Amino acid sequence: MDIAKHLATIDRLCAQEFPAERSRSARCTAGPGYFMVELETDQELTADDFHAYRQGIAERLDDRLGEQLPWGQLTVRVSMERGEEIPEPWATLALRTDALNVWQEVDTGRWIALGVADRDDQDEIQLLATVTEIDPP
Predict the structure, then answer these.
(1) Which residue among 48, 80, 101, 130 is buried most deeply as judged by most CB within 10 Å?
(2) What is the DSSP letter of 76?
(3) How many CB atoms lie within 10 A of CB 7?
(4) Please, are residues 111 and 135 in contact by the beta-carbon 8 Å criterion?
(5) 48 vs 4, 5, 17, 101, 118, CA distance in Å?
(6) Please, what is the end-to-end C-alpha distance for the chain in angstroms?
(7) How many Å apart are CA 56 and CA 85, to the nearest integer?
(8) In the chain, where the domains are located
């Protein structure tokens, strides 16, 4: 896992224009106002490995953007279960992650979210980075 490479990916997404329509490639889901990219997927690593790696990237983003505590996703999931509409990409992130590190980029106002998708035992564990102009719920 290469922290510098992943930070460069996040920086690139912060500078890119968002697509007009939803699209999916091998490692990226994008839509109006957001990008969600799979930074890492590795069947040999444990969830603890992914969380430690997320923390390493989060520390570097904290240095740049100010320290932020992780956001638990339970409240968002409960809101969804009650029928409240949660916009993308936040709805997908709530279903796939238990917690996110979230920052707002100063220059662009875009939100950066970093989390480990490990809620579904049937899916591979993934380190996800999301860049969006859509405010969190």
Answers:
(1) 130
(2) H
(3) 16
(4) yes
(5) 20, 21, 34, 16, 10
(6) 30
(7) 32
(8) 34-132
- One-letter amino acid of 89: P
Tokens 């220059």 correspond to: 107
pLDDT for the residue numbered 4: 94
Q: With CA atoms as reference, report the closest residue to 39 among 68, 10, 69, 71.
A: 10
Number of residues that make up the chain:
137
Distance between CA 117 and CA 109 in Å, rounded? 25
Cβ neighbours around 116 below 10 Å, total: 24
pTM of structure: 0.93
Q: Tell me the pLDDT tens digit for each residue of 47-76.
A: 999 999 999 999 999 999 999 888 999 999
Contact of 97 with 73, CB cutoff 8 Å: yes
Tokens of 49: 């490995």
Q: Which helix (H) or strand (E) holds 85?
A: none
